[in-house]
Specification:
single chain, 4 domains, Helicase, Ruva Protein, domain 3, binds zinc ion, 10 strands, 54% helix, 10% strand, five-stranded parallel β-sheet, Rossmann fold, three-stranded mixed β-sheet, 24 helices, alpha/beta, Zinc Finger, Delta Prime, domain 3, binds adenosine-5'-triphosphate, binds magnesium ion
Length: 496
């Protein structure tokens, strides 16, 4: 598949080719036409929204030999040289590359030299917030009293990092994220011009995930194209981006909301088996919940991150969860997504997080120590982070209940142990020394088989089981140590 470099080929070359940013474009074009441009501009805004592109159009327009209505002609030698990067008087400085010291020093020396080739020297300083203090100071001196023939266009994604002294000397333009309609319109235009047939739902996802930045959207389109060819479906996009389908997320949340932890674990198992990353599942679920909150508060079906037409009907249903619980679930999953970046035993962490949020919606029996008359701690729990230990308790209670259903004596043996955790498809269960008998009986095939069956039912996959002795004397230490060895610091919180 050919390499198209779509985002470069589709860089707007004239003001009227720019998508969106109408006010900025209009003001600049009028400025060129009426010959009343400022000598320094600051373009700020998110990545890939047109800052560099527009800076170059301005540079061409002021140097063009035959500008029309403020537009550059793109055919005179000045325009062409600028387009090819061969124009001596348009100087692009990337402040990110060496923080600009040499360039700014150079600039101070040369700024007073008249333009060699055109009418105006235009300095375009990209990522200007990266300049060192020294470079900023040098720049400040220059833009305080610039020669007539020089113009500065500073561009940045982080305007708050630019000294106020510099900012106040520039005319500022804020670039905004492009809207979904603007993004989809451009993507469609590019796709058509390249004989690509892209499903509307696929365009939707590409546009949505680019979050208002057209460069990212075009890069994604290209990536999917080079992977899948000219026919591009929603699934192709999900695959290439490693994203999780919104319909899947919606069904997963169905399971969570209805407290069906079995279904939730099964769905997770399937998604992981299909090659989705644990982190991506957690992240996409947070996006789904964020969309749900948005819908909750605005009641509108615009501006979603992952929800598409295919899953929108379910939002009404999921709204019933209530803002507080959605927020709580969101926090748990956001934490989890973070944790997953650094951890081994990813699957276990993911499963625990989902069990934890499922428990938010389950009116399960409160733990044995809590009297039945008290309101369920799950329902009244304050909004906040619940400990992983509680998730593990939920899981352990499920296991015990499943075993009890099958065989009461096995349950009696098992409930003297405790669930330590899971790693690489092995579940670890610890016994104190005093429960040697229980441990050894549990290791026998009939009992072990029952436990294995229950585990498979809950997690949706076959698991190994290991029974471990915990030393009585140093009960806490050893358990904690063992568990840390097995699962890392993050998810271990075992107290007697
Ligand atoms: N407003 C826009 N209209 C048309 N194309 C755009 C627009 N914004 C971005 N693009 C596309 O994205 C590419 C990159 O845009 P550009 O370099 O102007 O972004 P930028 O705002 O300077 O981003 P960065 O902050 O990352 O430097 C362009 O070549 C073009 O293909
Ligand atoms: Mg740029
Ligand atoms: Zn020209």
């Amino acid at each position: 598949m050919a390499y198209l470099a779509l985002y470069r080929v589709w860089r707007p070359q004239r003001f009227d080719e720019v998508v969106g940013q109408e006010q900025t474009v209009t003001a600049l074009r009028n400025g060129v036409r009426e010959n009343r441009l400022a000598h320094a501009y600051l373009f700020s805004g998110p990545r890939g929204t047109g800052k560099t592109s527009i800076a170059k159009i301005v540079a061409k327009a002021v140097n063009c030999e035959q500008p029309q209505e403020g537009e550059p002609c793109n055919s005179c030698s000045c325009c062409q040289d600028i387009n090819n990067g061969n124009f001596m008087d348009v100087i692009e400085i990337d402040a990110a590359s060496n923080r600009g010291i040499d360039e700014i020093r150079d600039l101070r020396e040369k700024v007073r030299v008249l333009p060699a080739q055109g009418k105006k020297k235009v300095y375009i300083i990209d990522e200007v917030h990266m300049l060192t203090m020294e470079a900023f100071n040098a720049l400040l001196k220059t833009i305080e009293e610039p020669p007539e023939s020089v113009m500065f266009i500073l561009a940045t994604t982080e305007p708050q990092k630019i000294p106020a002294t510099i900012r106040s000397r520039c005319q500022g333009y804020n670039f905004r994220r492009l809207t979904m309609e603007e993004m989809k319109g451009r993507l469609k235009q590019v796709a058509d011009a390249n004989q690509m047939v892209v499903e509307p739902a696929a365009l939707d996802i590409i546009a949505r995930r680019a979050n208002g930045g057209l460069r990212d959207a075009l890069s994604t389109l290209e990536q999917v194209y080079s992977y899948r060819g000219e026919q591009i479906s929603k699934e192709d996009v999900l695959d290439v981006l490693g994203l999780v389908d919104d319909v899947f997320l919606s069904r997963l949340i169905d399971g969570v909301w209805s407290g069906d932890s079995g279904q939730v674990l099964q769905m997770l198992a399937t998604a992981l088996q299909q090659g989705r990353e644990a982190q991506q599942i957690a992240r996409e679920t947070t996006w789904y919940l964020r969309d749900l909150l948005l819908y909750h508060t605005t009641g509108q079906d615009t501006g979603f991150a992952v929800v598409t037409e295919a899953s929108i009907a379910a939002l009404q249903q999921h709204k019933k969860a209530g803002t507080a619980r959605i927020l709580q679930a969101l926090r748990i999953l956001a934490d989890t997504a973070d944790k997953l970046r650094f951890s081994e035993g990813q699957r276990f962490i993911l499963e625990m997080a989902f069990l934890e949020i499922t428990a938010l919606f389950t009116r399960e029996e409160p733990p044995a120590t809590v009297s039945k008359k008290q309101p369920s701690p799950v329902k009244t729990a304050p909004v906040g982070r619940r400990e992983p230990k509680e998730a593990r308790d939920t899981m352990w209670n499920k296991i015990l209940a499943g075993v009890k259903e099958r065989k009461i004596p096995t349950h009696a043996l098992l409930c003297q142990g405790r669930l330590l955790g899971m790693k690489d498809d092995t579940v670890y269960i610890g016994y104190r020394r005093g429960y040697k008998f229980h441990k050894e009986r549990m290791e026998e095939k009939p009992n072990r088989d029952i436990l294995a069956e229950v585990l498979q039912e809950i997690t949706g996959r076959p698991l190994e089981i290991q029974f471990i002795f915990l030393d009585d004397d140093q009960y806490n230490d050893i358990v904690v140590q063992k568990a840390k060895e097995l699962f890392g610091e993050d998810i271990v919180e075992i107290k007697d």
